[in-house]
Amino acid sequence: MQNDDATNKQSDASQDLRSGSPAVITNKKTNRTNKAEKADRKQNKWSLYRHFRQAGWPKRLGWIAAALGTVTGTIVAGTYVADHWQRSQQFKAEQRPRIVIGAFKIADTVTRLYELNQGHPFFVEIPYQNIGRSTAYHVYHHRHVLFGNQYSRLKIEPPDTTRTNERLDPGVPVVTDAVSVQDTYKVESMYVAPDSFRPWDGTNPIVVFGRITYEDSDGTLYCTPFGAAYLNDQTFSVLSDFPPQRISVSDLCPSGSIQ
To answer: Do residues 162 and 109 both lie within one domain?
Structure first.
């Protein structure tokens, strides 16, 4: 005979089995459902290809023609946009302002003659002109001259933080000066105080350098750098770099500006 505890345990075990069995059946149904869904997705994935294979040749040719028309239209539109952009860039390049530097001349600040005398300060004339087809706006000059042991102080100046109101129309010649002073990087205005002059002590090299920055009507920044070494008799050698500093003349322009 079984006692009441044994009977109760068997009854509880039976209930546990009964309550658990539907869960097993449900899981099997769920697995089958997932497999069916995956099969349906796989079938739908290739439905377009199957439709194409099952369609007749007239319909196939119509689809192919439509696809080719779409591709051709895209290519034609892309070519038109690229060609239009290229033409607009070319037109802008042709119409832009373009400042160039002329021939340098050296002169004595005392005699006011085109000569170089030991014991006298001097200045270098820097002529420039806008040979472009439009006005240059916000023209800003950096012009410097160093000689002798000053030459080791040649450096690249940072981008300008201010804008001038100076403008330069095409075909107008202009001259600015770089004067021999104690600290060339402190002289930015046209006026130079006489007490800041530095007389030439007879040493070489004598190097004039700097840049002219300006903008077009759209605000695009341009830059014209320059550098030259004085030889003799009003003869200057135009430089592409400054040995032995390994500084290129083009490096004098702010990064990203168009020369």
So the answer is: yes
